[in-house]
Amino acid sequence: MSVRRVGRDITVLGDCLEVPGIGFLPVNSFVLHAREPVVVDTGLGLPDRDFLKVLGEALDPADVRWIWLTHPDRDHTGGLFALLEAAPGARVVTTFLGAGIMSTERPLPMDRIHLVNPGQSLDVGDRRLAAFRPPLFDNPATVGFYDERTRACFSSDCFGGPMGSADVAAGGEAREVDPEQLRAAQLLWASVDSPWVHTADPDRYLATVRPLREMDPELVLCTHLPPAAGITARMIETVSSAPGLEPFVGPDQQALEQMLAGFEPGDPPDQDDGGGGDGGDGRNDGGRVTTDG
């Protein structure tokens, strides 16, 4: 993971996952260093991640006052309960639906929930964060926000795209990616993550893009894209074309078996389990395949 300051008052906690056949998907969390500090999403819950330790490079977790979950998918909530324990004064910003979704696995303490709907705002001491629904999303509880003070838009999954390397995904800048490659990656992600968009009425969909144009943010901070400064207009044009996309169709079982056959066996070369890789630790280097994208 990488920890770096971008723009004004913002730290990016950069991470990524390899998605076989697609690339490296950024999985970012953020810290907004407001008077009442805000953590935006809490990363992956994989055993080799330590969100609190990484967060501690940006600020003392005990100082956190708000945890804004842009939506309650597992790649956004990995460090949530550890952070709630480390930050006794923090409250979770979500929606009624978001809280309900999380309650199916591990309920949030009701006295630590703060519900914010699109069109409302949150006062964090020295600024108000304006909540909005991004035009592309994969979870009905999705709520991003715009910080007028930093001119930063926290867009949740909207604008995401897989990158060509882990270094770019977890520590790069979106404007450094070739524009055509970035456009292709963002349209691929739109078709994967928002599969409903190919059925959307173009005019009604474009009405949901309009608030982004009006915001005109200088910096776009997406969970699944390196920080994007100075290229907002170009990215808005990209997502505006999403209703014409062909639906994404993922690999089937035959393709999965071909992928598995291309990996090197996980067993030492002098061992022969006679079974094509499911002896020993049984993984056949499948840690890469079972990655949760």
Task: List the keywords.
single chain; 293 residues; alpha/beta; 7-stranded mixed sheet; 6-stranded mixed sheet; 8 helices; globular; disordered C terminus
Distance between the termini: 17 Å
Radius of gyration: 20 Å
Spans where pLDDT lies below 50 across 5 or more residues: 267-293
How much β-strand is present in the residues?
A: 15-25%
- Major β-sheet, in short? 7 strands, mixed
Given helix and strand content, the structural type is: alpha/beta
**Spatial sequence of strands, sheet with the most strands:** 1-2-5-6-7-8-9
Number of strands: 15
Assign a percent range to the helix content.
25-40%
The DSSP helix count reads 8
Overall 3D form = globular
Mean pLDDT: 90
Sketch the topology as an H/E string, one letter per element: EEEEEEHEHEHEEEEEHHHEEHH
Account of the 3D structure:
The protein is globular and about 50 Å long. Helix 1 (51-55) links the parallel strand 6 (38-40) and strand 7. The longest helix is centred in the middle third of the chain and has 15 residues, at 179-193. The protein has 8 helices and 15 strands. It has 293 residues and is an alpha/beta fold.
